[in-house]
Amino acid sequence: MEDILHIQDLTVKFDGFKAVDHVNTAVRQGEIHFFIGPNGAGKTTLLDAICGRVKPAVGHIIFNGSVDLTNYAEDQIVNIGIGRKFQVPSVFAGLTVYDNMELAAVKKRSLTASIFHKATQEQVELIDHILHTIGLDEKRGQLSAALSHGEKQWLEIGMLLAQQPRLMLLDEPVAGMGRRETEKTGELLKNIAVDCTVVVVEHDMQFVRDYATKVTVLHEGAILDEGSVYDVQNNPKVIDVYLGRGGEQDA
Ligand SMILES: Nc1ncnc2c1ncn2[C@@H]1O[C@H](COP(=O)(O)OP(=O)(O)OP(=O)(O)O)[C@@H](O)[C@H]1O
C-alpha cells in the first residue's frame, strides 16, 4: 500500500513553544493509524496542522504524493479530500438524521446554499448507503437531539463520509462511550478504512489494541516510538512516559 500522507519535519509553535517538534512520519493508505501519548503531547495540534486549522512554523504535509497541505486553507483541505471530526459532536440537533446527512452531502460553499439544494438521486443513494454503514438507517426520521451520545458520533462520522473523503481525522471518537458503543465504532472504522484511510487520536488503550494497524507515540511534541501496537506497548520508554502512568485513562 502507498503512503497517503507524508509528514516532513513538521513543527508547530505557539508563542515560541513547540507543540509539535520536528515530526517525521507517514500514514499508509487503508490503515487505521493511531496517535497516542500523554496530555499535551501534541496529538490534537498535529491533526490541526493536517486539516489546516493551524499553520506550521516549519515542515511540509504531503497528501497523495504531491499536494502540500501547508499551502492550503482549512476549507480547501476539505475539498482536497480530508475530513476532520472534533471531539464534541457538531450535528444539528433540531434536524433529523436524514436532514443532517443531506446537508453534509450537498454541502456547497455556505450553509445557506446547502439548505436550498436538495440531494440528487446519486446523493440520495450515497446517503442511504452511509446510513446503513453507520447503523442509523432506522433512525433516519428521528431528530438528532434524541440520539444517544454514540449515535451522534456515528452520525457525524456519516456526515464526513457524505463528502467522500480519502482521509478521515478523528479526535477521541470513543470518549464517553460504553464498551458496546466503542466496539461498534471500531467495527465502523474497519469498514470505513476499506476506502478511506483513518487517523485517530485516542487515549482508550483497549480501543487502540483492538483496532490500530499502526501506532505513533508522541511525547512533548516529538515521536517517541512508532510501529505495531505490540511493539509500542512493550517499549520501556512508552511505558515510562505514558502507559505505566495510567495516562491512557484520562481522556
Ligand atoms: N492554541 C494554542 N495556544 C497555545 N498553546 C496551545 C494551543 N493549542 C495547544 N497548545 C499547547 O500545545 C501543547 C500540545 O497540545 P495538544 O492539545 O496538541 O496536546 P494533546 O496531545 O492533544 O493533549 P490531550 O491528550 O490532552 O488532548 C500543550 O502544551 C497545549 O497547552
UniProtKB/TrEMBL annotation:
Taxonomic path: Bacteria, Bacillati, Bacillota, Clostridia, Eubacteriales
Superkingdom assignment: Bacteria
Organism: Syntrophobotulus glycolicus (strain DSM 8271 / FlGlyR)
Keyword Lipoprotein set for record: no
A GO cellular component annotation in the UniProt record: plasma membrane
InterPro entries per the UniProt record, alphabetical: AAA+_ATPase, ABC_AA/LPS_Transport, ABC_transporter-like_ATP-bd, ABC_transptr_urea_ATP-bd_UrtD, P-loop_NTPase
UniProt name for this protein: Urea ABC transporter ATP-binding protein
All copies of domain ABC transporter, residue ranges: 5-245
Record keyword Transport present: yes
Keywords: ATP-binding, Nucleotide-binding, Transport
Pfam families assigned: ABC_tran
SMART domains: AAA (SM00382)
GO MF entry, a single one: ATP binding
